[in-house]
Amino acid sequence: MAGRVSAPSLEVSDLVVRFGQRAVVDRVAYRIEPGRTLGVVGESGCGKSMTALSLLGLVPAPGEVAGSIRLGGEELIGQSRAAWRGMRGRRVAMIFQEPMTALNPVMRVGTQIAEIMVLHKGASWEAAEAEAVRLLEAVGIASPRDRARNYPHQMSGGMRQRAMIAMALAGEPGLLVADEPTTALDVTIQAQILDLMRELQARTGMAIQFISHNLAVVSELAHDIVVMYAGRVVERAPAATLFAHPRHPYTQGLIATLPDPERRVARLPVIRGGVPNLDHVTGCRFADRCPIAEPSCRSAEPELHVAAEGHDVACFKS
Ligand SMILES: Nc1ncnc2c1ncn2[C@@H]1O[C@H](COP(=O)(O)OP(=O)(O)OP(=O)(O)O)[C@@H](O)[C@H]1O
Ligand code: SF4
Ligand SMILES: [Mg+2]
User: Fold this and answer.
1) How far, in Å, CA of 228 to CA of 116, rounded?
2) Closest Cα partner for 23 from 179, 229, 230, 213?
3) Is 45 in the pocket of ligand 1 (CB under 6 A)?
4) Were both Cys, which of 33, 274, 283, 292 would link to 298 (CB 3.0–4.6 Å)?
């Protein structure tokens, strides 16, 4: 692995994000080693973004975060606002689902990207501005020199998304958290951006947490995968193992809905129903949709356990 020594590992354990009585992220645990990419998958509302936002100290009020997030061995939960601000962009950077949350509306896009390199890498303004243009080009923005002088509102949604990706990469963070980074972009640009992330990872040893509801996109980049359902981790395994031997019925359902490579057509989704109301759940949260549920699945909640070496699953029957 071509990693730099300073790239940190991330260790999340017992992470809980609560809004009032409701835990939207519930005892989540995973780790990411330097140079590795963790894919986080699960359908809308399962807590992917809240997990991501807790890594940057950005869970919105009145959300409360508990548990442990250790980056390079250092505990982040409970640190001061100033400490969070000091590490964002440099130690941890995030590509948000909504670009406008990350871009400053009154600053030229090129200047925003350059500023990160000046602040975090001690580059000169001149070098940083040239590098910003190069990065805008690398994320597929045409006429990057002119675009660097745009304000965010002068760009299209897709272009803003790419500008935000350029900004996140500019700081060469130790950990990159990418929340649905390419969902809105066309396939060619998507592939180009995934390449760019891989390139930077190979050069700097950056760890990546890559979030998507789309298992096919995650599989292009992820070494390891965490599957979330209704705020909980239901399966955790190396990507190849997960695809070859999915153990949780929910993961099996997700894989069954992937386009069939033989026939090149999308199969019909097989997971019917929706995520349960977390206020009233007892037993397995997937029981209402599980094709192999038994009455006993509703009396206790299955905990994540080791099913095989490096392969954890939260289901009584696997
Ligand atoms: N400000 C808030 N107050 C209360 N509940 C919230 C708030 N923001 C989000 N939630 C709830 O937290 C849960 C997890 O949301 P989250 O945004 O993490 O889901 P997600 O997995 O990222 O979904 P998506 O794929 O749609 O982005 C959802 O049920 C959502 O309704
Ligand atoms: S514990 Fe029971 S209901 Fe839950 S996923 Fe496993 S078999 Fe299905
Ligand atoms: Mg989300």
Assistant:
1) 33
2) 230
3) yes
4) 283
For the Cβ of 212 lying below 6 angstroms from any atom of ligand 1, the answer is no
- What distance in angstroms lies between residue 293's CA and the mean position of ligand 3's atoms? 28
- Ligand 2 centroid to 177 CA: how many Å? 30
Domains in the chain: ranges and CATH = 10-91+173-313 (3.40.50.300), 102-172 (no CATH)
Residue 313 CB–ligand 1 contact under 6 Å: no
Number of the ligand 2 atom closest to the C-alpha atom of 250:
5
User: Residue 57 in 3-state DSSP?
Assistant: coil
What whole-number distance in Å separates Cα of residue 22 and Cα of residue 186?
36
What ranges make up the beta strands (E) of the chain?
10-19, 22-32, 37-41, 64-71, 74-75, 92-95, 175-179, 207-212, 224-229, 232-238, 305-308, 311-313
Q: Which residues does a 6 A CB cutoff place in the pocket of ligand 2?
A: 249, 284, 286-287, 290, 292-293, 297, 302, 315-317
pTM over 0.70: yes
pLDDT in tens, 177-228: 999 988 878 888 888 889 999 999 999 999 999 999 889 889 989 999 999 9
